[in-house]
Design goal:
heterotrimer, A alpha+beta (129), B alpha+beta (1012), C alpha+beta (211), A: 129 residues, alpha+beta, Folate-binding fold, two-stranded antiparallel sheet, globular, disordered C terminus, C: 211 residues, Gyrase A, domain 2, 6-stranded mixed sheet, 5-stranded antiparallel sheet, 5 helices, 11 strands, 23% helix
Chain lengths: 129, 1012, 211
């Protein structure tokens, strides 16, 4: 059971509120009518299945109903970041490789979205103050 | 029978409360505070089970979750049976009834034991695979007997009288285990202000502190436990869960806990005085930080006949004496590789029983406990080990030899010692199971001679499990873990003062995973590694010799660490033996993966409240009560309860479904019927780009649809396959109401959002579900207009309110939106009202409908009527591999729409344009009395030998009362070119039906009736 | 005429025809209990006006200030209420808010909002017939919720004024903390009976006052 930070609700929610929708950042060919059968077949049927960093499309179906992307490690199941539609991941297989080569440790803050903190406590303080 | 092994003083049992219980039909007495295991030992019961594979007599070995043998079937009555309960974990209660899991007719005389007696070379690992696989077809037969013989406990045949539930938790710090490390951690984190949950699987919190010889602050350690638990229980931010096992550790610090709430008191919750409360509860915890303080399990030594009753773990001997005031024998031999185990001998001696000798594998042991033992006059034999236990039904002696661990041989002379109990200790294995559940591999620590937990994000291991042995170190490490966890959760550190311990010096332990024997492992009496699964050292050796090199393969070949045991006692020894045989190091061989659950969890706890009436939501329409009162039979459509048909009672006889449906069908075709269509999905679409969006997600055209009009639309996926259909009404230029199939409602809404949010965010449009807001009543049949006109002022004339129009109106004084659409082929009005007023309008329709013979009909009649018209049901007549063209619905495809709508490009893929696709047709059985089976396969050549070429299948099939014969819808290869041809439908019973391919429209092909 | 391109439709009758809340059927099925020492209190706040507001936060905020005299909650998962506590606006998603008002006000509200919003891109959807509100209170209300929703209902994570859409057993709920002592559960009509049965069952060990 994942614990997923919804970038729209800005808090962590249980996996049961979400639906996975497969590989993220899929592009529908811009001009379908002139796409070759092979291009169209690739778009319809072929997906990446990497070991390690992967970007996935999820939807907060029992929640805000918004789609967003997750950068997830398919080996450890760690979710490295979540980000709204239209944004690009800050962590990729290439960036991780680079970090390792440069000997830079990955930050271990535990929060999936950059800058995100469990805001329940902050919210509480704000309202009660 | 008296409690012969009970001692008069000490222990945490209440001697004033005697409890009667029954084991294997025999009545015994124990004390309040006993476990079933300690009570059995108190009564001198040696044999508690027969082993899984060889049916050997087995006794109690351990005192906790790691017990491999005393796995019993609990329950006084059939409905309260619980299999796979560890007697060491089951608190004794008055009237407890338990049986051995294995053994027939009883554990003393077991008819299956001949299998074990033939033993030796007869049942090597892989025995079942090797012996019973030929012929393969017979395996099913063999398996039944093997399983019966093996016995893994049995499920009750009657319903459980108890209830179970779940509870969700969130906390900053989840502490697993309330031994010294866990208590110190919980106290430290709790005082800092963190939300803390502390769970422990035992009856009492305290873990090893409940039976330790050591003191805290100069007094019994249990006093500190009491004070600490008392403080924790008074803190608002702490949840204490005793009798609660952390059974699974899942992704992102999600931990499942199994709390036994009344199982320690009686057979059922109501007998325990807790009627209406749950017997067990599954807690689902999402923790910020997990502190794993699960401690260690002692490893038994692997020597010949080490499974005879009377062979026990050294630590268990101490626990039974100090905690339960039970000495499980008269004469003890202790065989050990470390200092810590010496306490068993000291405890035994202090209990007033004879200690024959301590046999230590080390040449020069000299720790504090060793000195203490020597000082008290106990004989210590060094550089030696018990190599073989003697005895039949119980240990009668131990054979001791000097051993050379370097060369793995026995040296020197042997000595026979007379005894009835052999306690052994081969060291301690940190309980890494939970950390392994996350997928992390444990790490070998050569100094500890054990695996410690690997790194898990958000987990801190503390105390024994982290390799901190010795009470002072364990407490300090627990305090550190609690402090760190609180800090990581955003709390500042709190002060706690740890109790003072007396320093004790332990000498180094030696590595001893298997004791050598004069004979080779294969020839020596069995040396058991995994007692629960009957895996021997010889079995592991044989597996490596047969070429199994990966420890995961060795595990599967031998069953090491399988089942409910999950390798608690045997895994490390087993891996070490495999490593020795393969001439590799232990870390090279690695560990197998420990899996959830740590100990068995009842199905009741897993299911919780999701059973019976609450198994799955039942969705009701606003008219449900009327349907119930009018005798409807219901059909499940997804989670909805829809009226299936409304049987009438004629002359005291209730109509059959066939009779009711025939009557309902004719009523619609000849007079007027009414259907509750509220379950259809309804989506409100608003925005300036609503129309453009519709054009992109539907296959047909929407540019010209005027306000006041309705259109039927098909929705495809981008692979060109039909996914949903329905009508959509133009309410205003920028406002549409889409209907979906009942089952597709949620999926279609998500589909629209998917495309809007990910592909076309520039389009200005919003989608919202209004399925539950509107109730929909379909009034249909030639007399529909006459009936409706009595309830509304709206002009229903066919010229002013045309087919595929909608109008706002007032029906029976309630604002209504009426759609002139038809799913029956007859004149039809779909009346939508706000659901809170639906029952009122429905009843008014019936008040006026009586004189028109208004007939309620259900989904079955709806299906027959729509099928007679060749109207598809998505998901019944289609299956995700059918295009609109396959259905012959080219009229609903906007090939020349400007935007490349979803599914368009795929319609020209080679696979979708190939000539031999299956096409949607009607089937008319040659025999008018035949109603074909839905799903029946269609062949062109009935004489063809099996396997026949299957050319299609029946998708819908009914009897038509209007036509007077059966009819069907089907998909058939090149079906539209085969009109009038005969096809065949071979059935499993050998009959072959014949049918003619026809148009799928059986009634009113020109569609005149719905336009009247 | 406001926003001529969308269709307004008042679904509330002018007269007084029979009306039934989504829980009417359940109330007839389940025995009502009111023990002296109930640990859980359950009440329906029936037949309220429920509206879904979609659009940009800035234009909608202006409109609701003008029409309702309340501000739009901009912070995720929060609710604003009027002084009487009768009208509320809840953040559902970055472009969606749930407005609950006394029954019968919804059509007029929709009309005035449409007028105020003019040509802006927005949507207003009346869902009054499709959902209802259950009030949950009592000493053991939080434990009942812990048996029911996986969302954290501890006061530190769920202060008064918070509201979330989440899973309710095997259905869904909009869960709101109305006050220190009261929770509001906005449930869908078709699931209302399931939710109600579930709550009665989960709360039975504490004693339920269902009136």
């Amino acid at each position: 059971m994942f614990y997923i930070h919804c970038p729209y609700c800005q808090e962590y929610r249980e996996e049961e509120e979400f639906h996975p929708r497969g590989q993220g950042h899929l592009m529908r060919p811009a001009d379908p009518d002139n796409a070759t059968d092979e291009e169209w077949g690739d778009y319809l049927f072929f997906r990446d299945n990497p070991r390690g960093i992967h970007h996935e499309l999820w939807v907060h179906s029992v929640g805000c109903r918004k789609f967003f992307n997750i950068t997830r490690n398919t080996v450890t199941y760690e979710i490295l970041e979540t980000y709204p539609m239209g944004e690009q991941p800050t962590i990729t297989a290439e960036s991780e490789k680079l970090r390792k080569e440069q000997g830079v440790q990955t930050a271990d803050g535990g929060w999936q979205t950059i800058g995100a903190q469990p805001d329940s406590r902050a919210l509480n303080e704000e309202i009660s103050s | 029978m008296t409690q012969t092994n009970r001692i008069d003083a000490g222990g945490r049992v209440d001697r004033a409360q005697t409890l009667e219980f029954t084991f294997n039909g025999q009545r015994y007495q124990g004390l309040k505070g006993d476990t079933l295991a300690s009570a059995l030992l108190a009564n001198g019961v040696d044999i508690v089970n027969r082993s899984f594979k060889y049916s050997r007599a087995r006794g109690i070995v351990a005192a906790g979750a790691e017990e491999p043998n005393a796995v019993v079937q609990l329950g006084a009555r059939e409905e309260t049976q619980v299999p796979n309960v560890r007697a060491t974990q089951q608190a004794l209660y008055k009237g407890l009834v338990a049986r051995s899991t294995n053994g027939w007719p009883n554990v003393q005389r077991d008819v299956m034991s001949w299998v074990g007696k033939l033993g030796g070379g007869f049942m090597p690992p892989g025995f079942y695979y090797k012996t019973f696989m030929a012929p393969a077809s017979m395996w099913m037969t063999y398996e039944k007997y093997i399983r019966k013989g093996a016995g893994l406990g049995r499920a009750p045949h009657e319903s459980d009288p108890d209830i179970y539930d779940h509870m969700h938790h969130h906390c900053d710090v989840m502490v697993i285990g309330a031994g010294p490390a866990g208590l110190a951690a919980a106290l430290s984190a709790a005082r800092a202000g963190a939300r803390v949950i502390l769970c422990d699987e035992q009856e009492e919190m305290g873990g090893s502190l409940l039976d330790t010889r050591e003191t805290l602050d100069g007094v019994a350690a249990a006093r500190w436990v009491e004070a600490t638990v008392k403080e924790l229980s008074g803190l608002e931010n702490v949840t204490l869960l005793p009798r609660t096992t952390a059974n699974g550790y899942h992704d992102h610090n999600f931990v499942t806990l199994h709390e036994r709430r009344t199982e320690h008191l009686a057979d059922t919750a109501s007998e325990a005085g807790f009627a209406g409360e749950s017997r067990a509860r599954l807690h689902r915890v999402r923790a910020g930080q997990v502190i794993l303080a699960s401690g260690t399990h002692e490893r038994p030594l692997v020597y010949a006949n080490n499974d005879l009753p009377g062979n026990m773990l050294a630590g268990a001997v101490s626990t039974y004496i100090r905690r339960y005031a039970v000495v499980p024998g008269k004469k003890l031999v202790l065989s050990t590789s470390n200092d810590h185990a010496y306490r068993a001998a000291l405890d035994w001696k202090e209990a007033g029983r004879e200690i024959v000798a301590i046999v230590d594998a080390r040449a020069n042991p000299d720790g504090d406990l060793v000195r203490q033992a020597r000082d008290s006059g106990i004989r210590v034999i060094t550089g030696s080990s018990v190599v073989e236990a003697r005895g039949g039904q119980r240990v009668t002696g131990a054979r001791v030899c000097a051993i050379d661990l370097e060369r793995f041989v026995v040296t020197g002379k042997t000595e026979e010692l007379e005894c009835d109990t052999i306690a052994s200790s081969g060291g301690y294995s940190p309980v890494v199971h939970l950390s392994s559940h996350t997928g992390t591999r444990p790490q070998w620590n050569e100094e500890l001679l054990g695996f410690v937990p690997g790194e898990v994000k958000g987990m801190i291991s503390a105390g024994g499990v982290a390799g901190h042995y010795g009470l002072d170190k364990t407490l300090a490490d627990g305090e550190r873990a609690g402090r760190e966890a609180a800090q990581k959760s955003g709390f500042s550190e709190a002060q706690i003062t740890l109790p003072a311990t007396r320093a004790r010096r332990d000498g180094p332990a030696c590595a001893l995973y298997q004791v050598p024997h004069e004979k080779t492992a294969l020839r020596a009496p069995k040396q058991f590694v995994d007692l629960q699964n009957d895996v021997t050292a010889a079995g592991i050796e044989l597996a490596t010799r047969e070429g199994f090199e990966s420890i995961e393969h060795v595990k599967r070949y031998t069953a090491l660490g399988f089942g409910t045991d999950q390798g608690k006692l045997g895994n490390i020894n087993g891996m070490a033996i495999a490593a020795r045989c393969l001439d590799r190091s232990i870390p090279e061989v690695g560990t197998t993966v420990f899996r959830p659950n740590y100990t068995p969890v009842t199905f009741g706890a897993i299911v919780g409240r999701h059973c019976g009436e609450l198994f799955d939501p039942k969705r009701y329409t606003a008219l449900h009560q009327w349907h119930v009162e009018n005798g409807a039979e219901f059909e499940d459509v997804g989670q909805w309860k829809r009226p299936w048909y409304f049987p009438r009672t004629v002359n005291g006889k209730k109509e059959t479904m066939h009779e009711a449906v025939a009557r309902e069908c004719l009523a619609v075709r000849e007079k007027v019927g009414i259907l509750d269509a509220s379950t259809l999905g309804k989506i409100d679409i608003q925005g300036p780009d609503a129309r453009e969006f519709m054009g992109r997600v539907y296959t047909n055209k929407w540019a010209q649809l005027a306000p006041g009009r309705v259109r039927y639309g098909l929705m495809c996926k981008d692979d060109g396959m039909l996914m949903d259909d329905g009508t959509t009404s133009c309410l205003a230029d920028n406002h549409f109401l889409m209907t979906t199939t009942t089952g597709g409602a949620a999926g279609v809404l998500e589909w629209l959002e998917l495309w809007h949010q990910t592909e076309w965010p520039e389009l200005q449009v919003y989608f919202n579900s209004v399925t539950d807001h509107w109730a929909t009543m379909t009034v249909t049949g030639p007399d529909a207009r006459k009936l409706l006109s009595e309830l509304t002022d709206l002009d229903l004339d066919k010229e002013s309110f045309k087919f595929m129009d909608w109008r706002d109106a007032v029906v029976a004084d309630v604002p209504a939106r009426i759609f002139r659409i038809s799913f029956t082929g007859e004149l039809a009005f779909e009346i939508n009202v706000q659901a809170n007023y639906a029952l009122h309008v429905w009843k008014k329709l019936f008040e006026h409908g009586e004189k028109h013979d208004l007939t309620p009909y259900g989904t079955e009649t709806m299906h027959v009527l729509r099928a007679e018209k060749g109207l598809i049901i998505v998901g019944q007549d289609t299956d995700g591999s059918v295009t609109p063209e396959d259905l012959g619905m080219q009229w609903a495809i906007g090939y020349d729409k400007p935007f490349p709508w979803i599914g368009k490009r795929a319609l020209s893929r080679p696979d979708t344009v190939r000539g031999d696709r299956k096409q949607f047709v009607g089937l008319k059985p040659k025999d008018p009395s035949v109603v074909l089976e839905e799903g029946a396969q269609i062949v062109f050549d009935k004489e063809q030998a099996i396997p026949m070429a299957m050319k299609g299948h029946v998708t819908s099939s009914y009897y038509s009362p209007s036509l007077g014969h059966g009819f069907a819808l089907a998909v058939v290869v090149e079906g539209r070119d085969r009109m009038g041809q005969t096809v065949y439908l071979p059935m499993p019973d050998g009959t072959v039906h014949e049918a003619e391919i026809t148009s799928p429209v059986f009634i009113d092909p020109k569609g005149e009736r719905q336009n009247v | 005429m406001s926003n001529a391109s969308a269709r307004e439709f008042n679904t509330v009758p002018a007269g007084n025809p029979g009306v039934e809340s989504p829980l009417a059927w359940s109330y007839r099925q389940q025995k009502v209990s009111s023990p002296a020492s109930a640990g859980v209190v359950l009440r329906e706040k029936a037949l309220l006006g429920h509206m879904v507001l979609r659009g940009g936060a800035i234009v909608l905020d202006e409109a609701v200030r003008q029409v309702l005299g309340m501000s739009l909650p901009a912070k995720p998962n929060t609710i604003t209420r009027d002084e009487a506590g009768e009208r509320s606006i809840q953040w559902i998603s970055p472009d969606e808010w749930l407005v609950i008002v006394p029954g019968g006000e919804e059509f007029d509200l929709e009309h005035r909002l449409r007028e105020s919003l003019g040509d802006a891109h927005f949507s207003i959807v009346n869902v009054s017939g499709g959902q209802t509100v259950l009030m949950l209170a009592g000493d053991h209300a939080r434990e009942v919720l812990m048996k029911t929703v996986s969302f954290d209902v501890h006061p530190s994570a769920f202060p008064v004024g918070k509201g979330v859409t989440t899973i309710f057993a095997k259905a869904t709920v909009v869960l709101r903390r109305a006050s220190e002592t009261e929770w509001e559960l906005v449930i869908r009509r078709s699931f209302a009976d399931y939710c109600y049965r579930w709550l009665l069952d989960a709360a039975s060990e504490y004693g339920v006052d269902s009136q």
